[in-house]
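Q: I'm writing up a methods section and want to include an example of the input and output format. Could you take the sequence below and give the corresponding predicted structure tokens, formatted cleanly so I can copy it straight into the document?
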Amino acid sequence: MSEEEKKYTIIIVDDDDFLVNMYATKFGHSGVSVEACKTGELFLEKLRAGAKADLILLDIVMPGKNGIDVLKEMRKLKLGEGIPVVMLSNQSDEKGISESKKLNIAGYIVKSAATPSEVVDEVLRIIKNSHP
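A: Here is the clean output for your methods example:
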């Protein structure tokens, strides 16, 4: 990675340690630092404390608050404003996708339909498009 390449930070909200570690490694190879939150509640606390990121990857199915509820609370409380949110889920049903899209997400990736490299490429594309 060259010096002039910008280093980005993303927050992954997912309760699956294996996936979080795998994505952290993949993103790390692309110069992206990753912060992880295992629950929606911990993630919301982090945002309330002023956490900043270039993008948020948010799973839908998690213990406690699901990703859509977390996203609704973010929007209601104006947390993480200006940070693109990408839903990263195994849920591919239209209801979940359309409910997420109504909450102004930057993208929706079905985990089982995308390779980790495709996820990294899509996230970097979204970050670059949101940071002119």
